[in-house]
Amino acid sequence: MTYSELKRLYQIIEVKLRYGLDDFLPDDPRVKLPKLARKSLFWVKNQHADKPLGERLRLALQELGPVWIKLGQMMSTRRDLFPPHIADQLALLQDQVEPFDGRLAKQHMEESLGGPLEQWFDDFDEVPLASASIAQVHTAVLKENGREVVLKVIRPDILPVIQADIKLMYRMAGIVSNILPEARRLRPTEVVREYEKTLLDELNLMREAANSIQLRRNFDDSEMLYVPEMFTDYSSERLLVMERIYGIQVSDIDALKANGTDLKLLSENAVTVFFTQVFRDSFFHADMHPGNIFVSYERPENPQWIALDCGIVGTLNREDKRYLAENLLAFFHRDYRKVAELHVDSGWVPPDTNVDEFEVAIRTVCEPIFEKPICEISFGHVLLNLFNTARRFNMEVQPQLVLLQKTLLYVEGLGRQLYPQLDLWDTAKPFLEDWMSRQVGPQAIVEAVKSKAPFWAEKLPELPELLYDSLRQGKAMNQRMDKLYDNFMESRRNQGQARFHFGIGATLVVCSAILFSNHVETYPAVSAAMGVTFWLLGWRACRK
How far is CA 42 from CA 11, 37, 536, in A? Predict the structure, then answer.
């Protein structure tokens, strides 16, 4: 490891110890060595012993920077895995990270715009409306049309921190792969590379604007999901101007109930919106923590989701979607044999895997989760059990699906908070069955014909000419093939003649040598001359 990497690693350890996060270590004989190292090698004392453990964890992650804040945001959605005093504190990382100076934010905005902020906006508020790990937002009014907007600006000097942590993660992934050969199947380097890409994408706000425009177009006039309008004329890589929305943060259950929101329908719509993004559009919001998700005040009997911060989106190709849909449907139908066969066919497990044993292992993990409300199902525990199964059958992690897996965890966390009795399977199963019928059934043929019909209609008037050109090209091709065949046969004849002449020439030269060695006069010279002559004839035949 380089000096800078060791320095960052020490800084991470120092921050965690300064906030006393070693208190998370259980009283177990297996952790005696780390506790001993804590006391003997690291002299950093817990400087926040007066604060609750959850607050200490939040402050430590916040101080370590955006890579760690993102981890805390994901952890905050898993209230089934963490107690309330931990989850409540981590939830503050979603939009209440310590802000930076509003005057500095204004300065960076003016640098991006190329002039004073007052030239384009009124009523700019230097106090941030919200502050997150990558950026913070301020409110203003657009002079052009009087619409309320928010201005999102990237935190200053954030790139070096991200690059340092990512570099350290690469180093640790390489070390883990070398020390633990069985960890290679998890492809830690590829996973880190995928995480690096998503973080760096978030630093380009024009990418977020483009993603938001695409998602808004996909759900145009939808009653389930609303995406705010982007004002790209004022936006740049470090500044994003967008419509200001008013809604209830999804984590504020009391406010949702007070507004009369149908939480059951809201939860079902969340599942439908997610699967629509994944399977219909192949373009899904991949950062669905509660800080980015709101619910409209309007129509609480038919509530509408509001999606913000599309800096991280995921895409799936046709093969990935087909594979996922077939696997999920097989799970819903408890067809574990089909699940095992799909894993083998897709190459996720080695082709020599014993399908019967794999089927039994999957059944052991998945059978207990069915026919239960979501409050009794933990995808976290299911994934852990599947991980243990994967170890037995050498299953490889697919980096392109890491975002999808993370988003599934977010959706589960949201559903658990809103309506614990939601039956996730009954909600998702009809959607997937309908999608699969449109992909492989009669409707799929009709859709394919409909999609190709305009192209066929465009080419139909050209069909006679295309047919004539095809026949003419076929005739010309036959003529070229005949000519090539004739040339080939002639070449073979010439090569045969050349071999014959070379053979006679060689024989005459050998005879000349024999005659010369026996002191025969005249004949050796004649034989040698004739041999050279035949060689020249053979060379000439090769040149034809």
Answer: 12, 7, 89
